[in-house]
Amino acid sequence: MLSVARSRGIETAFDRADQMAARCPFGSAGVCCRSCLEGPCRIVPNGNGPRRGVCGSNADTLVARSLLNTMIQGASGHAEHGREVAMALLKTAEGKAPYVIRDVGKLMQVAEGLNLEIEGKSINEVAKAVALTALEDFQKHEGTMNWIEYRGHKKSREIWDKLGITPVNAHLEIAKAVTRNAMGGDADPLNLLLGSVTMGLVDGYSGLHLSSDLQDILFGTPKAVKFNYSLAVLNEKQINIAVHGHIPLLSEKIVEWARILEHKALTVGAEGINIVGVCCTGNELLMRQGVHAASSFSSQELVIVTGALEAMVVDIQCIMPGIQQVAECFHTEIITTMPHVKIPGATHVNFEPEYADEAAREIVERSIRNFAKRDPIKVVIPTGSVEAYAGFSVEQLCEVTGKINEKNPLQPLIDAIKDGTIRGVAALIGCTNPREPQDIGNVTVARELLKNNVLIVTTGCAAHSLAKYGLMNEGGLEACGDSLKSLLQQLGQHAGLSTLPPALHMGSCVDNSRPLDLLSAIADELNVPVSSLPAVGSCPETHSPKALTIGTYFIAHGVDVHVGVDPQVSGSNLVTRTLTGSREDKGITMDGLFGGKLIVESDPVKAAAILLERIDMKREALGI
Ligand code: NFS
């Protein structure tokens, strides 16, 4: 599709990445500062030139500040996601928004976890109490965030509390981070790095855990489901609507209204309405509804280049403004839906939970009308979509393993880890990045780990890569080492499938709460900290600040995290050493504080080798 775009003179992110050529050396090293009007200042790392900015900040301070700035963006994005969902749950419970609570069991489980009274209360009363407790995580001024009290692993909590980095409420911590980062604020690079860890925890709990829990309550906890992946999921004969972004509040409604208005599609000569997913809104819908996925982040513009897309509906995050320029070459209507995320030239249909039905209906009707404007000569849809299985929430996994050990569903997994059937667990997470060859890093790391019997769980755009390359269906089993392969086959039979797929799709990026819930539960069974487990995270094709905050949240629990793209901290030896150094190294390191560190390696084969080394090191320390 990229060559189709180029042959038609349509520019995409891949072309713009080429035009960008070499990266700015100052920005790449994290040593440029635009925090005040004394500057902009820049420091020549390890060279001749100014060693300090006008205010006296040195490279260590600038790099730590610049990293914290990135972390603020990541944490804010996920915290805002959590808050939006909490508001929708509240309005639903009050009868003001047209949603229903689909998973009452999860609602009760979350309410009990939050120590809320459920005896004698109606479903809506409990839902309201859960929503208000969630919203407190954006309001309270003392104590610890409710979701950390509920979901945070006790042994990790002790470390955070001792360091004084446990968040109180998301907005307070974000505001504090912005202030400490401003000119004349925090100048201590190590203190700033601890501030970054707090952002990781804000992201992890008010963002990831809170969002996953509340979305499961509203839309159902994912169960094994089949879907198809690739641009080939667009249907030439149908009205195609792509839903793109992150929060599933509107897109769930669009799926509902596409079903209700299917008959109207027939009146304009289409054979139905086909909803396809992009990025994490795509992941949300495929996990719960089996909606087919068209594209990850990097190639989002190429969905439009098929010429068969009536509308691309976007909510928040990871939306390239470039989609509008591409859409102008076709009949595709870009529809923004959030008041704080607009694109010049796009149509705006405002979304509020109260009016979700009206917005979804209008969007589907607009798409139906757009079908008549489609130019059949421009339609090029690739063939050959790939089948994939998804929906592996912790609940779904435990349902499968519970068929082997009803009393303790985690035991079969723990036994497999102990006896080496599973050498370790890796979460393959994060993005695709137009500056990198798409999917290659994600797939290579996964294949290298699978052949060494590492169990892969996956989320976000990395999951798109693995699905596209066949690692979420039976055929992908050839990638696994022998012991992992037979375990997956054995477990698959208990799930009513021929096998579990080699890569277990756990959902969107906010669903990175799920791998940590799994690890926390295993750690509890073994009575060890999460940091002792032979578990790693890998984000080979990083692009988003959100990926860095998610990685930081893993590291705060003592899980090593690999990134394949330069995190722009090389301008400070101190910062680099603190993030990437080992516990044996001199000075303070993340590994020493939390038991997990950052691994920066752009070669995916080498990265996998390092991850295996770290897995083996943790196995040895555990005595298994
Ligand atoms: Ni995660 Fe999901 Fe994709 Fe990266 Fe963007 S869509 S939230 S940030 S690019 S994985």
Automatic annotation (TrEMBL):
E.C. code: 1.2.7.4
Catalysed conversion reaction: CO + 2 oxidized [2Fe-2S]-[ferredoxin] + H2O = 2 reduced [2Fe-2S]-[ferredoxin] + CO2 + 2 H(+)
Keywords: 4Fe-4S, Iron, Iron-sulfur, Metal-binding, Nickel, Oxidoreductase
Cofactors: [4Fe-4S] cluster
Binding site for [4Fe-4S] cluster 1: 24, 32
Any GO BP annotation: generation of precursor metabolites and energy
InterPro entries the UniProt entry points to: CO_DH_a-bundle (IPR016101), CODH (IPR010047), HCP/CODH (IPR004137), Prismane-like_a/b-sand (IPR016099), Prismane-like_sf (IPR011254)
GO molecular function, a single term: anaerobic carbon-monoxide dehydrogenase activity
Binding residue positions for [4Fe-4S] cluster 2: 33, 36, 41, 55
A UniProt-annotated Pfam family: Prismane
Binding-site positions, [Ni-4Fe-4S] cluster: 246, 280, 318, 431, 461, 509
NCBIfam families linked to this entry: CO_DH_cata
Family annotation (PANTHER family): CARBON MONOXIDE DEHYDROGENASE, HYDROXYLAMINE REDUCTASE
Listed name of the protein: Carbon monoxide dehydrogenase
Organism, as annotated: Paenibacillus rhizophilus
Primary gene name: cooS
